[in-house]
């Protein structure tokens, strides 16, 4: 059993702290947000993550887990401090490391024990070296302190499961002491561990996230071409997925990737490459494709409807993906202001994201149009002129073609997550547009009269 402190109780810090306690360590979760700490002490999770609240309550009651704003007491005599604070994007795309620096300074001035500092936040390559130097420079007591990298790979919506059943734990250490301590902290998880140097560990995180982002952008690029040449990207993805080298995951085309990480981590790596005089073309392309993808359906609908003024617009899904109440870089945040700007009356359904959306846009982003938050899909669809699907929540996936047809004033659906069957929608009389698939014939299919193949050599 180790005595551990975790700095930051966001998705990464809180889940790390709770799962460390669950496997037997003694954990203090530190945050600067007093309200958050109060909420957590009362047994309530400040974020929506399946299974998290239960584990919080269980380990808090067992005395293995505590929450505090008092970092001085929390850091003073622990074996390890995990840093899980944010590294948000700055205007030039680089990562903002000021939160990390603040914690490093607090650690340097506080620790009275030999301590391993572990950077869990996603940080540019070389940051761990700087954090270690910084702590050494400001160290008040004569203790041994080293920094190790331990990037996190959990996905929001399945954070607890992903942590307890992670595909691998990455450890980036520069000494046997640091490596051994981190390995034994993770020993009770019984998971595969890959131990490398700090810079490689930092790179593994960016390379993994950006590879996944690239995979999505690649499929979106192919989807856009599919539309032009009459192929169906879902069938294409299915055909590709049987090749084990490609795999079946992250092949879903749609209105692009959002969330707190892919958008910022692609930009941060591209920025880092630029700083080093290297043109990271593949990642740049992934960013570029994603930019165009987010408002693709809005643009299509604008062409079709000319204006949204006075129209009732059903919006299904606000969060960047299902299973989370997080809105960061969600497609809804780009599309809804455009719709409101044109005077649309939006009826938005999201099982958990509405409250957060309201916080960001309390009166509607631009003062034009209106936005009403409803508690079920039926209320959103009732008498709507057009519907946009932004998030593939189960409640949304379950909407039948008949329901669209019967509830909407005009059954016109723009699906950014490709969740419905094109033919079924057509049969029910719904005009259906998705990404990289043929639209229903009600939308007017283009017949190809192209005989160029006669001149093509294969
Ligand atoms: N959200 C995710 O799914 C994943 C995030 N990451 C990375 O982990 C890092 C953290 O991300 P999130 O957990 O999403 O961040 P978050 O923004 O949800 O949480 C950060 C927390 O740190 C607190 N904080 C700020 N300064 C502090 C200080 N000096 N002492 C203590 N607490 C402080 C904030 O009040 C906040 O509660 C980022 O680098 C991110 O890229 C990595 C994998 C997954
Ligand atoms: O570093 C991070 O923060 C995390 O980023 C992602 O996790 P997350 O952002 O929670 O969500 P994902 O499930 O990866 O989805 C990200 C975005 O990609 C989109 N996506 C995903 C898969 C797909 O096939 N198509 C697609 O458009 C989703 O709709 C969503 O907007 C990674 O999956 C995690 O491994 C990583 O730890």
TrEMBL record:
It holds the Pfam family UDPG_MGDP_dh. SMART domains: UDPG_MGDP_dh_C. GO terms for molecular function: NAD binding; UDP-glucose 6-dehydrogenase activity. GO terms for biological process: polysaccharide biosynthetic process; UDP-glucuronate biosynthetic process. Residues 444-458 have a biased composition (Basic and acidic residues). Residues 435-458 are annotated as: Disordered. This is UDP-glucose 6-dehydrogenase. It comes from Virgibacillus profundi.
């Amino acid at each position: 059993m180790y005595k551990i402190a975790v700095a930051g109780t966001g998705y990464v810090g809180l889940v790390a702290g709770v799962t460390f306690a669950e496997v037997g360590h003694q954990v203090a979760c530190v945050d600067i947000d007093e309200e958050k700490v109060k909420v957590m002490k009362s047994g309530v999770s400040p974020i929506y993550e399946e299974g998290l609240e239960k584990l919080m309550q269980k380990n808090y009651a067992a005395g293995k887990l505590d929450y505090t704003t008092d970092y001085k007491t929390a850091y003073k005599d622990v074996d390890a401090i995990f840093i899980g604070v944010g590294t948000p994007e700055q205007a030039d795309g680089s990562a903002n490391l000021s939160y990390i620096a603040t914690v490093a300074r607090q650690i340097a001035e506080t620790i009275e024990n030999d301590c391993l500092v572990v950077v869990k936040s996603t940080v540019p390559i070389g940051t761990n070296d700087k954090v270690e130097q910084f702590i050494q420079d400001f160290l008040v007591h004569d203790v041994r302190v080293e920094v190790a990298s331990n990037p996190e790979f959990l996905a929001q919506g399945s954070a607890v499961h992903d942590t307890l059943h992670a595909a691998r734990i990455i450890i980036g250490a520069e000494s046997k002491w640091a490596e051994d301590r981190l390995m034994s902290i993770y020993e009770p998880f019984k998971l595969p561990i890959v131990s490398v140097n700090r810079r490689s560990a930092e790179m593994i995180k960016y390379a993994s996230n950006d590879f996944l982002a690239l995979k999505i952008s690649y499929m979106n690029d192919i989807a856009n071409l599919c539309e032009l040449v009459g192929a169906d990207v879902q069938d294409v993805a299915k055909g590709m997925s049987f090749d084990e080298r490609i795999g079946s995951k992250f092949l879903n085309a749609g209105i692009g990737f959002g969330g707190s990480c892919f958008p910022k981590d692609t930009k941060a790596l591209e920025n880092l490459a630029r700083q080093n005089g290297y043109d990271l073309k593949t990642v740049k392309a992934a960013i570029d494709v994603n930019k165009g993808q987010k408002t693709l359906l809005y643009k299509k609908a604008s062409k079709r409807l000319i204006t949204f003024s006075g129209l009732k617009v059903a919006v299904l899904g606000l969060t960047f993906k299902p299973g989370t109440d997080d809105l960061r870089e969600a497609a809804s945040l780009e599309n809804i202001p455009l719709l409101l700007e044109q005077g649309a009356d939006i009826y938005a359904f999201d099982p958990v994201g509405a409250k957060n959306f309201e916080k960001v846009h309390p009166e509607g982003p631009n003062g034009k149009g209106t936005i009403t938050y409803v508690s079920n899909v039926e209320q959103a669809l009732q008498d709507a002129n057009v519907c946009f699907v932004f998030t593939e929540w189960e409640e949304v996936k379950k909407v039948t073609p008949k329901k669209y047809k019967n509830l909407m004033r005009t059954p016109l659906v723009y699906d950014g997550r490709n969740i419905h069957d094109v033919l079924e929608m057509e049969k029910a009389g719904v005009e259906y547009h998705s990404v990289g698939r043929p639209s229903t014939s009600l939308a007017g299919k283009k017949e190809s009269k192209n005989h160029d193949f006669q001149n093509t050599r294969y």
